[in-house]
Amino acid sequence: MQIIDAQLHEIGPWADWTGESEESQHRILTEVMVAYMDAVGVDGSIIFPGGDYATAAWAAAALPDRFAFVPPITPETPDLDRVITEARQQAGLVGFRVLIGWPLDGAEVRRLEAGAWDPIFAACERHRVPVFLFITGWLPAATQIAERFPELILIIDHLGLRQPPLDMPEQPPFKSLPDLLALARFPNVFVKLCGLPALSAQPYPYADVAQPLRAICDAFGAERLMWASDTSRFFGRIGIGRHQNPVTLGDYPGKHRYADSFHFIRDSDVLTASEKEALLGGTVRRVLGWGRRA
Questions:
Q1: Where are the alpha helices (DSSP H) in 13-85?
Q2: Range 4-288 classified under CATH 1.10.246.80
Q3: Is residue 218 predicted with pLDDT exceeding 80?
Q4: pTM, 2 dp
């Protein structure tokens, strides 16, 4: 079984790049990501660039068996229709990310309701380009997207649930889980299974979140779920700039290691072997059409 992590951001290191060529920077950052993955036993990862996606694009082109990437897209993206039309022609680009749940004040949700995001959804549906939907805190708003664009491949980021360290979990942490499970009735909706350990009040193996894991798998089926560590978020290393959340510099409730995120799924006693195979790479290969096959 080939393991694919469905979300990483660029993983440091923080450095003064003065005097280094752009290619050297890309090479160093890519080698660091490869080292992280090899240490845990991950074969491939999808990079979600924190800003300029030059490093992600370089990594995907240099090591196409190890990396793909998903850049952000907004209604302000220049030449929007051409960008989406040509997306499949760019090496390693397997979808776009739409940020509706950020900022937390709901500004993008209001733009969604006003129709500002519709051209993106319509074009991605037309060209069969998957959309990773960050809609944390506003899960019911995903219903209208799934209903109006039934052929759009829509992947819910981070379970749609508020998670540390960039957000405060609801109380209880799975208060909005029914809103996620309600989306299972739409066959075009998939879920990035990311961050369950962050919502646990217990140490590894996070026994208190085994039941929500099982509920999500029962609702969607493993063939619509893809595991993601997003380990760079939980350690505050989002992007190659100094976007570092001070909360993550020390311990905080929900902080966990890359290996913990992976083994939580691989060694789970509430998932079958075939479900694990789908979560840990099978769904990514089938839905996104990318990744090494066993």
A1: 22-40, 54-62, 80-85
A2: no
A3: yes
A4: 0.95
